[in-house]
Design goal:
By secondary structure, the protein is α+β, with helices and mostly antiparallel strands. Helices cover 38% and strands 22% of the residues. It is built from one helix and two strands, in the order ββα. A two-stranded antiparallel sheet has the order 1-2. The longest helix has 24 residues. The radius of gyration is 14 Å and the shape is elongated.
Length: 64
């Protein structure tokens, strides 16, 4: 995994502190919020199987 980007300065953050972005098939997934890195990792891990399944489904042309 690549290096995580550094947070923006507080004045530039808007209404969230962290964001993760990934693409699977034709979809883009955004996970944004104010959770710390450990909490975001838990949520991302919980979503990973479904995101991977979406990528496989979209690439094969089958629908869910």
């Amino acid at each position: 995994m690549g290096r995580l980007p550094q947070p923006a300065p507080a004045a530039d953050q808007g209404n969230f502190e962290s964001a993760l972005v990934t693409e699977a098939g034709d979809s883009t997934y955004l996970l944004v919020g104010t959770a710390d890195d450990d909490e975001l990792a838990v949520v991302a891990g919980a979503l990973s199987a479904q995101i991977t399944a979406n990528q496989t489904t979209n690439q094969s042309g089958a629908s869910q």
